[in-house]
From TrEMBL:
<comment type="similarity">
    <text>Belongs to the acetyltransferase family. RimJ subfamily.</text>
</comment>
<dbReference type="InterPro" id="IPR051531">
    <property type="entry name" value="N-acetyltransferase"/>
</dbReference>
<dbReference type="InterPro" id="IPR000182">
    <property type="entry name" value="GNAT_dom"/>
</dbReference>
<feature type="domain" description="N-acetyltransferase">
    <location>
        <begin position="23"/>
        <end position="181"/>
    </location>
</feature>
<protein>
    <submittedName>
        <fullName>Protein N-acetyltransferase, RimJ/RimL family</fullName>
    </submittedName>
</protein>
<keyword id="KW-0012">Acyltransferase</keyword>
<dbReference type="InterPro" id="IPR016181">
    <property type="entry name" value="Acyl_CoA_acyltransferase"/>
</dbReference>
<keyword id="KW-0808">Transferase</keyword>
<dbReference type="Pfam" id="PF13302">
    <property type="entry name" value="Acetyltransf_3"/>
</dbReference>
């Protein structure tokens, strides 16, 4: 999936915005707090994210937007100009890899938007950020995210417990990794120096 979207995504990137066939991944603004709170104020969404409280208020969304770490890259997922979710990544300390994440408003589930947005973000991570691999995870009771991760070609690497703010508890989670495609490495390395 990532490979098929790679070329399309790279042609459609403008600054920090990423475009796919149906979506636009754009920077968040304070004006997005109301919409984020509106679509995020659903237990079925909040309980599957690590940092989203429940209930999720506009003030909490505003605070979250203001508190995004300098190294964290967060983009709103827009469909026909309307925000439908959020995706992003946080580079590891070594700068060689990143953890990705995503969530969508419930009325946008089951239409391929999460897969499309995550594939575009992954292509950006490999092509522009040059990460060697990306990681992600999902709580064990989130089969929808498991399906998205499988479609994207991730490999299971383990299980751990992760904090869930909405549940106010640590929850069992499955972890995955996706290595940068070898062909991408060759493009960045240039022609072979071997004689």
């Amino acid at each position: 999936m990532v490979g098929r979207l790679w070329h399309l995504v790279m042609k459609r990137m403008q600054g920090s915005e990423i475009r796919t066939r149906r979506l636009r991944l754009r920077e968040l603004t304070q004006a997005d707090a109301r919409r984020i709170a509106e679509i995020g104020a659903d237990w079925d969404i909040a309980s599957m994210t690590s940092r989203m409280p429940y209930p999720y208020s506009e003030a909490a969304a505003d605070q979250w937007i203001n508190g995004i770490h300098d190294k964290e890259v967060v983009r709103g997922i827009a469909l026909d100009g309307q925000l439908i979710g959020v995706t992003g990544y946080l580079p590891d300390e070594d700068g060689q890899s990143a953890e990705i994440g995503y969530w969508l408003g419930k009325s946008y589930w089951g239409q391929g938007y999460a897969t499309e947005a995550a594939a575009a973000l992954i292509a950006y991570c490999f092509r522009r950020e040059r990460f060697s691999h990306v990681t992600c995870g999902h709580y064990i009771d989130n089969p929808a995210s498991e399906r998205v991760i499988a479609k994207l070609g991730f490999t299971p690497i383990g299980r751990n417990r992760c904090w869930c703010e909405a549940r106010n508890a640590e929850v069992d989670a499955l972890r995955y990794e996706l290595k940068r495609p070898q062909t991408a490495w060759l493009r960045f390395q240039g022609p072979s120096r071997a004689a």
